[in-house]
Design a protein that fits this description.
Layout (H helix, E strand, L loop, with lengths): L9 H11 L7 H4 L5 E5 L2 E4 L4 E4 L2 H4 L8 H13 L10 H14 L3 E6 L2 H18 L7 E5 L8 H6 L3 H4 L9 E4 L19 H13 L4 E6 L15 H12 L2 E5 L23 E4 L11 E6 H7 L19 H16 L2 H16 L8 E6 L4 E5 L11 H13 L2 E2 L1 E2 L10 E4 L7 H17 L2
Helix pairs in contact: 4-12, 5-12, 9-10, 13-15, 14-15
This protein binds pyridoxal-5'-phosphate.
């Protein structure tokens, strides 16, 4: 690679890709034409032909600080030369320092367990929830309530918690004990309500499920503050507080999945803080290292740890181990990420840019095919429909053409991951916090042009 261009043999590399690399989530023919990314700077990535794209998806919702932060690479290098590896069955300094910082970011005392991915952070949360109840004398509490359209990961438990059919199809049966409820989708309310007549029936339904399942069998409820990959579904303001209240009343733990919403994305350090809710367990990954190295964490309220795990009976400790969880280099990059976030006031920046993005997106409201526009922090979803009156979802091929038209114009936008029939018509935006105001405007301009191009 020279000046961002793969000088020799781009086609030979892609031929090898077709032969050796298996790309997930991409259908066979599409997987034969990947974009080979060879570099990046700020909010931009460069492909092998030297094309530069404004990445309005931060890779996979994670490169919050942009692509060229040498400080993050240097933190990894320093750590790897000093002490490259030791498992967290013992300890090391970067893990201690990062656990303390995360607890501070969470605004309360939390015990932190490190792992490798958002999926694993959620698996760990489910295990902790079950074990917590078992060790307090309620071993029959093992079920987890989750929402349709949510995504919580790709492993057998996290996938079972997810509510997206196409990701599960042909892999079932998955882990048992996950009970799904309708999502807070205010544009297509599962209870036929409009915002003006909403009585948060979707939250009330969780209360009903507690009775129908018998609450003594329910260990936890898991929810993202805003369903992200499932189409940026922003709930009514009282929804998460209501889930908190329901969990308290029924003795279940509230797990909040902050894998995307965490680390400033919503304009607050964590998304749940915007709703004034204190979760029992918080799971995080992605933005924790701004995507530079794999790392995830499961944070558990210190009181819960003290209550159920601070004892020496047989089997009372958490029996989950992973070789790479809390890798020293990843923790060092996590610390450097938080340093930059704090030094450059990135949480405030995300909030201010998010307000701008929301205001700019309003310009699209009158365009053909634009049904609903939802924004929350520096995160947005534009729901495309055949026409505004029927709200019939726009055909997936046409949504794909909008995404492709944006890319042709040099802007990468996303599409919701929920490809359940009738549920894959939402363009998603999740730009790095380093975008400028002009770049936010450009993202919206290009999306508008792309929508007009298919109209
Ligand atoms: N939870 C949420 C909300 C996610 O969006 C994702 C991934 O996109 C995950 C969990 C799983 O994270 P990972 O891909 O790191 O396993």
């Amino acid at each position: 690679v020279e000046d961002g261009v793969l000088k020799a043999g781009a086609s030979a590399w892609l031929e090898k890709d077709r032969r050796y690399v298996w790309h997930g989530m991409v259908a066979h023919e599409a997987a034969r034409h990947p974009m080979a990314v060879v570099g990046g700077d700020g909010a931009y990535v460069l492909d092998a032909e030297g094309r530069r794209y404004l990445d309005a998806m931060s890779g996979l919702w994670c490169v919050n600080l942009g692509y060229s932060r040498k400080e993050l690479a240097e933190a990894a290098y320093r750590q790897m030369t000093e002490m490259p590896y030791y498992p967290l069955t013992h300890t090391h300094l970067p893990a201690i320092a990062l656990a303390e910082r995360l607890s501070t970011w969470l605004g309360g005392e939390y015990r932190i367990f490190f792992s490798n991915s958002g999926s694993e952070a959620n698996e760990v949360a489910f295990k902790i929830a079950r074990q917590y109840h078992a060790q307090r004398g309620e071993p029959h509490r093992w079920k987890v309530v989750s929402r349709y359209r949510a995504y919580h990961g790709n492993t057998m438990g996290a996938l079972a918690a997810s509510g997206q059919f196409d990701r599960k199809f042909r892999y079932e049966p998955l882990a048992p004990g996950f009970v799904h409820v309708p999502p807070p989708d205010c544009y297509r309310c599962p209870f036929g309500k409009e915002p003006s007549t909403c009585a948060m029936e979707c939250a009330q339904y969780v209360d009903d499920v507690m009775r129908w399942e018998v609450d003594e069998t329910v260990a936890a409820v898991i929810a993202e503050p805003v369903i992200t990959g499932g189409g940026v579904l922003v709930p009514p303001d009282g929804y998460l507080p209501k889930l908190r209240e329901i969990c308290d009343r029924h003795g279940a733990l509230l797990i909040v999945d902050e894998v995307i919403c965490g680390f400033g994305r919503t304009g607050a350090p964590f998304g749940h803080q915007r709703y004034g809710v204190r979760p029992d367990i918080v799971t995080m990954a992605k933005g924790i290292t701004s995507g530079y190295l794999p790392l995830a964490a499961t944070a558990v309220r210190a009181e819960l740890f003290e209550e159920a795990f601070a004892r020496d009976e047989a089997y009372a400790h958490l029996r989950h181990v992973n070789t790479f969880g809390g890798h020293p280099a990843s923790c060092a990059v996590g610390l450097a990420t938080l340093d930059i976030m704090e030094r450059e006031n990135m949480v405030d920046r995300a909030r201010i840019l998010g307000d701008l993005l929301a205001a700019e997106l309003k310009r699209l409201q009158g365009l053909p095919h634009v049904g609903d526009i939802r924004a929350f922090g520096l995160l947005a979803g534009v729901e495309l429909v055949e026409d505004g009156a029927t709200r019939a979802p726009l055909a997936p091929e046409l949504v794909g053409r909008v995404v492709a038209a944006c890319r042709q114009r040099g802007v990468i936008v996303g599409k919701n991951g929920d490809t359940t029939p009738g549920g894959n018509n939402i363009v998603t935006l999740c730009p790095p916090f380093v975008v400028s105001e002009a770049e936010v405007q450009r993202i919206v301009d290009v999306l508008g042009e792309a929508i007009l191009a298919i109209s």
